[in-house]
């Protein structure tokens, strides 16, 4: 009986360690996605949202959100992980802060919903909702902090990114579905 408990604890430790490695990896991928940047004003084009959605899909709601909280934590203490020249907590209070602050919620919602059904259309819907959260929070903060005009905020904080983010959305779904199948991931459905 002691051998079974010891084996169970060893397996649990390995799973926790693997989970933490993936959490840190997705925080790092989100950082790299911020550095693939086309600077536009007031919000740059980046690959961050793709990695936010994938973190939720692959890691699940809790670990996906944790990976994004770690990313935000690293940026808020001053490490240059955010897009653009500024770093630190002040970035979260600026015009693009709403997008960033929505990352954990987006990963959580995406991760939760992806586990409910196993189909391309459901994964697409789940990731679309995760992306919508980012745009909703981002556009609201952009309006209150910088633009002060809802029509302009929607135009410069959402509509300008629609085509770019649809491409990233379909890429995210394709990457997830392909890797999940290739790796034969069982996601506790």
Write a structural description.
- It is a single chain.
- By secondary structure, this protein is mostly helical.
- The protein has a single domain (2-181), classed as Arp2/3 complex 21 kDa subunit ARPC3 (Orthogonal Bundle), CATH 1.10.1760.20.
- It has helices at residues 2-35, 48-76, 90-93, 97-101, 103-114, 120-147, 150-157, 162-183.
- Helix 2 (48-76) crosses helix 8 (162-183) and helix 6 (120-147) runs antiparallel to helix 8 (162-183).
- The radius of gyration is 18 Å and the shape is globular.
- The two termini are 30 Å apart.
- The mean pLDDT is 91.
In a few lines, what is going on in this structure?
By secondary structure, the protein is an all-alpha fold.
In terms of per-residue confidence, which ranges show pLDDT below 50 for 5 or more consecutive residues? none
Whole-angstrom Rg: 18 Å
**Biggest sheet details:** none
SS content category = mainly alpha
Q: What is the C-level CATH assignment?
A: Mainly Alpha
Please tell me the total number of domains: 1
Task: Tell me roughly what share of residues is in helical segments.
Answer: over 70%
Strand content: under 5%
Instruction: Choose one word for the global shape.
Output: globular
Membrane topology: Multi-pass membrane protein
Subcellular location: Cell membrane
GO molecular function, one term: biotin transmembrane transporter activity
Keywords: Cell membrane, Membrane, Transmembrane, Transmembrane helix, Transport
